[in-house]
Target: UDP-glucuronate 4-epimerase
Amino acid sequence: MSQLKHLDNSPPTPGKFKMDKSPYIHRLRWHGSLAKLTFWSFIFLGLILIFFFRSPSSNSLPSDPSRRSLRTYNWGGPAWEKRVRSSARVRSRHGMSVLVTGAAGFVGTHVSAALKRRGDGVLGLDCFNDYYDPSLKRARQALLERSGVFIVEGDINDSALLSKLFEVVAFTHVMHLAAQAGVRYAMENPGSYVHSNIAGLVNLLEVCKNANPQPAIVWASSSSVYGLNTKVPFSERDRTDQPASLYAATKKAGEEIAHTYNHIYGLSLTGLRFFTVYGPWGRPDMAYFFFTRDILKGQTIPIFEAANHGTVARDFTYIDDIVKGCLASLDTAEKSTGSGGKKKGPAQLRVFNLGNTSPVPVSDLVTILERLLKVKAKRNIMKLPRNGDVPFTHANISSAQRELGYKPTTDLQTGLKKFVRWYVSYYSGGKKASG
Ligand SMILES: NC(=O)c1ccc[n+]([C@@H]2O[C@H](COP(=O)([O-])OP(=O)(O)OC[C@H]3O[C@@H](n4cnc5c(N)ncnc54)[C@H](O)[C@@H]3O)[C@@H](O)[C@H]2O)c1
Ligand SMILES: *[C@@H]1O[C@H](CO)[C@@H](O)[C@H](O)[C@H]1NC(C)=O
Ligand SMILES: *[C@@H]1O[C@H](CO)[C@@H](O)[C@H](O)[C@H]1NC(C)=O
Model:
């Protein structure tokens, strides 16, 4: 896809260039002075070309999707540090100062805005990768900028950058939402899951563990860790050893890594298992979003059914409910207990389902969209492919209810209405929509 475009456009590497030309050079030697002149002209031209292709910008062009991490970012300097400090400054009496990773993402944007609104200090971090349309991430960034949230452009696997951020700001909390999301992308770019969900997570936890004081960390896991479980609703204590995708496997591994950092270093950790989050400023790779786009375009949409014509259903959760769950998790997070990279006592370790508790068949989702868009969908019923999607999700939220006061209040009908209103105004109004 977009990575392949890079491949086609990328110039040949200097090494390759020399290899292709050397047979010519060899033959030219055996001719007279005119040939000699041609020979030296070739060399000269070659040197110019090599010099040209070696310019840093073209050299750092990612030619292979798994190497996208090698992109370099500009950060540092007094003006940059000033912006970082000002964005993270706490403005309410008992406010916290939060580093939000994945702040240009769907959930990250909403959480950052909500924290800022109530007076907390917020600094965003995001690498603006092109897993889906980066212009949507830029539009979210512009939205946050207007409310005073600065998003640092960088990678969570960059330890120098993260250490620098903790040097400039003594974050009390980290809301970790940066990740490679989606299940089907693993066929195209498996390395991105390792890069962000494993290496990036470990790097973040390392820096948090070394920070003084250590922050409390709330991070996004996923309902996908329940994999192919058939016992519903899914409870936090249920087995999570049957992942159905690489995405789910990296989220499950992430939970174990987080557990380890809690146990060894005294980091306070709360893992949130989100259930299919949707809403304004959402993700274009998710069904409710591209169904809306394709229904409006008059294109056929694929609707999956499980084995034996079984229903595929999701516990769709509205973004505002998820945001409330995130903020409540931050508010009830206890302090980390370690210092100087060493554990001083047991630290808080929690995991919560954040869902809506009412699974809706995907065909009903389409019916609601048809009504809201006033367009009939062209449905193509297909068998659920075995590449990561699970047939059914349903959250048991009694734990979050008890400990966070979490109570979802938006049903799918109401939430989709808000999504569609945003969608239409964003894509028709010259992308000038606001939240
Ligand atoms: N939206 C859902 O339905 C859902 C469900 C379950 C879990 N989650 C989890 O919630 C979190 C947020 O999801 P979202 O829907 O907002 O996804 P998103 O893709 O919109 O946001 C993630 C953001 O992280 C950034 N990012 C990715 N890798 C990075 C890296 N290495 N360094 C810096 N930034 C990086 C991306 O650019 C993106 O803006 C993710 O961890 C996701 O796995 C989401
Ligand atoms: C993450 O960063 C580490 C240390 O800088 C580096 O060695 C590693 O290759 C990176 N991992 C990925 C998957 O990008
Ligand atoms: C939901 O989870 C709680 C534990 O948090 C458990 O006691 C309860 O039985 C579960 N409810 C259902 C319907 O499975």
Remarks:
- Confidence is low (pLDDT under 50) at residues 1-32, 46-67.
- The chain has 15 helices and 13 strands.
- The longest strand covers residues 216-222.
